[in-house]
């Protein structure tokens, strides 16, 4: 489902018009319409305003299937690139190195992350 279709879906679930969503989010209703029809794609800051206006997490709009360590790393790099986030990490514990080509299940990765940062 496209971002625009998701916006429309959640807007309809709340039974609000494009105009009302525009007012709640501070975005012009014509722009909301363009997002819903796929004419334009919202920037991350606009998407956050829409998510907040709809009372949902911005993660609802993110399209990704995370099954491997490579998927997680790709997602982090994509977030860094698109949202201009600066990921930095320091650890006083022994580092756990996971090869990019490995196909560890996400559950294993989460266990490692929980162990490393608790």
UniProtKB/TrEMBL annotation:
Alphabetical list of InterPro entries matching this protein: Cro/C1-type_HTH, Lambda_DNA-bd_dom_sf, TransReg_Diox_bact_type
GO terms for MF: DNA binding; DNA-binding transcription factor activity
Presence of keyword DNA-binding: yes
Any one GO CC term of the record: cytosol
One Pfam family per UniProt: HTH_3
Domain of life, per lineage: Bacteria
SMART domains named in the record: HTH_XRE
Membrane-spanning residues: none
Occurrences of domain HTH cro/C1-type (ranges): 7-61
Protein name listed in UniProt: Anaerobic benzoate catabolism transcriptional regulator
């Amino acid at each position: 489902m496209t971002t625009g279709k998701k916006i429309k879906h959640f807007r309809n679930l709340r039974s609000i018009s494009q105009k009302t969503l525009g007012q709640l989010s501070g975005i012009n209703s014509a722009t909301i319409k363009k997002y819903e029809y796929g004419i334009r794609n919202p920037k991350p800051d606009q998407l956050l305003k829409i998510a907040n206006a709809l009372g949902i997490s911005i993660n609802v709009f993110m399209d990704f299937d995370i099954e491997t360590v490579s998927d997680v790393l790709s997602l982090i790099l994509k977030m860094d690139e698109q949202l201009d986030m600066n990921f930095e990490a320091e650890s006083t514990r022994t580092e756990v190195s996971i090869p990019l080509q490995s196909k560890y299940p996400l559950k294993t990765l989460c266990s490692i992350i929980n162990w490393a940062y608790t």
